[in-house]
Amino acid sequence: MNLKFSLILKTLFTLLVLTTSQTILAQGTYTPTQENLEARQWFKDAKFGMFIHWGVYSTLGRGEWVMEVDKMSIKNYEKLPSFFNPTQFDAKEWVKLAKDAGMKYITITSRHHDGFSMFDSKLTNYDIVDATTYKKDPLKMLAEECQKEGIKLFFYYSHLDWHHPDYYPRGSTGHAAGRPDKGNWQNYVDFMNGQLTELLTNYGPIAGIWFDGWWDNKGADWQFVKQYQMIHKLQPQALIGNNHHQAPFPGEDFQMFERDLPGHNTAGYSGESEIGNLPLETCETINNTWGFNIQDDKYKSVKSIVHYLVKAAGYDANFLLNIGPMPNGKIQKEFTDTLQAVGKWLDIYGETIYGTRKGPIEPHSWGVTTSKENKVYLHILNRQDEALLLPAFGKKVKSARIFKDKSPVKIIETKEGIILKLPKKEDKEYDLVIELEM
Length: 438
Prior knowledge:
The chain is an alpha/beta fold. The protein has helices at residues 3-27, 34-46, 66-69, 74-77, 91-100, 128-131, 138-149, 185-201, 224-234, 302-314, 333-349; strands spanning 48-52, 105-111, 152-158, 208-212, 239-242, 255-258, 280-285, 317-323, 357-358, 367-372, 375-380, 387-391, 399-402, 411-413, 417-421, 432-437.
């Protein structure tokens, strides 16, 4: 190859790369509507939501990944819907529990990785109305009750599908399902968009879509730009989040972190995550599994859940706390007792959580700060001494008092910052909250 021809090829390649990059950027351009921006502000104020993982997998009582973990074939897994008959499901009861817990929204699995739709879909018979003896649409009932009670509703929707034949090429999971080694990916994308259209058309105002499963098939042509545009066109206020463990993609409206606070990677899912400039959310379970697991009795204490909620607010994030209802539609007592106790704590301290933003002092080993208007709330979760030294943060402190009873807290100003004299520790104290007025 002569030098001149080589330079021509190099120039053409460079132009191709630049053109492709510009096309991708143009396709990824997203300007949120006013309704969407207002929804983002509401989301940042809400702070606390209920996550619900519920599907035919609950009949086996071993979590939502049982099809993959037990290497079940589609033929055998398709027997589960006939055993799923949640006659004790009560949408009013579920929504009341969320409200009593101080939660402002619910995110529920409309379709998980097993491919079974928990709503009445006209695009498949593999759904709760057509494939079970229950013959009812629980998401329709839940949507109506949420609207009645002022609770926002999000739908979780899995991009990954272990059941659909056109989910091909296969990803990293679902290889024991027994699907043929062929399929039409475009058919699968069209199927997903058709179901999303159903969810955004037949269930009233929807607060958002919570996607999951991209990580199974990172190289696939997901066509997110088209999918996200469709969602925003159907319901402009709907917020889009994707649990892809990456920096936010164009078109997304909030960013979530699975089992971790933003910027942390203790669970091992967020190693590639980069915090963007969107509203944030972290999700966690009450025990160790998302779906109903009859043998999982590793329940987190009320104190640990309150601490996680407070820390999430201190990191400027919402906390989406999960429950896995039983196959009969009931929520187990261990969950309801915990949620009601958290709700009682929020009855007292909700002002220091709802509508707040991350405080001026970065999270420390002793706790976090939240702020609202001219007030900063110190959430002291781990007392280390009888006094607390706060670094200077550029604002004059007018007064300090215990939030619960409004009793004054002594302040000593030093060159290093401000020293607060802490009161005697109370029994079963979850969080000593001190209100600073600026």
